Amino acid sequence: MGKFKRLLSLTLVCAISVFVTGCQKNVDQAVNSEYKYGKLKIQALSGAVCGAPAYVAYEKGFFKEEGLDVELVSGTLDENKTGLATGEFVVTNGDFQWFPSIQQGMNLKVIGGLHKGCIKIVLPPNSPIKTAADLKGKNIGVDEIGGTPMSVATIVLANAGINPQTEVTWKPYPLDQLNEAVSKGEVDAFAAWDPFGTLAVENNGYTVLTDISTDPLFKGKSCCFLYASESQIKENPDKVKAIARAYQKADAWIKEHPEETAQLEIDKKYIASDDIKLVTQLIKSYDFEYTTDTAKDDISYFVKKLDKTGFLKDNTDPDQFANDTYYDILKS
């Protein structure tokens, strides 16, 4: 009788194991059928208002519609570079800060433009600095060395006749500590994504030195592009195309629903602000639209501007660089 009970118990355990394994298999198959392209990490949690395309594509299900099981993550520029090089990341959002890396051999392609002006250079109250030329010899705060706000500031400086590599000092701080750095006298100005620059103006009496949504150097040009790993374009073109379509849908939705986008960013704590009116105003000013041929033109334009900064190789041909760097994944 004891042997029979042990045999019966063993049979039941096996049956349950088979049942559970079968159920898990069915669950996995259901998940796989829902997400054709599987799991995907995108480094998009920057705290920036202009990160809306990734937030909206995630929250409104545009990634899911395209068969992508996306996880939005945070990280540094170096972590982003490593992830793109190793295949951990397929795409990234950024401006022309990636152009020097591409020249140095990083296999990235621009696959679309996402929106326009989202960065400001701001000055504290009573600052003696009145023009970009006054920044010569000054300390400038940024979120990270080589990041997007720093790249924007280098163009402003170079256009004012200042060498951004030798005639200013760059100091990196977390975005929410830039105001404090100014208060301590550690920096004289800072360049930052919105909402940080705009909040400094609204709450702390700062003035705007450069607003790339209105400054003639940047107005009407894509400040942020969608980049994709060149190896992923070759190996998984349909997956990259699906990602591009999700961003395209998100941009279109944002353009039609700026206030809802602002509320989403606030409710989901993607940004450090609860001022719905201000965030809505910023979103409207960015002119969200997924661009293709226009994005290619913008690449060429910014190569010309970066030529003065010293961050690109001498005599870089803007049109050739644009031809080599841009890839219209949606037409492929």
Automatic annotation (TrEMBL):
Domain of life assignment: Bacteria
SMART domains noted in UniProt: PBPb
Record Pfam families: NMT1
Signal peptide: 1-22
Keyword Signal in annotation: yes
Domain Solute-binding protein family 3/N-terminal: start-end pairs: 49-274
Stored InterPro entries: Solute-binding_3/MltF_N (IPR001638), SsuA/THI5 (IPR015168)
This protein's UniProt keywords: Signal
Annotated family: Belongs to the bacterial solute-binding protein SsuA/TauA family.
Protein name: ABC transporter substrate-binding protein
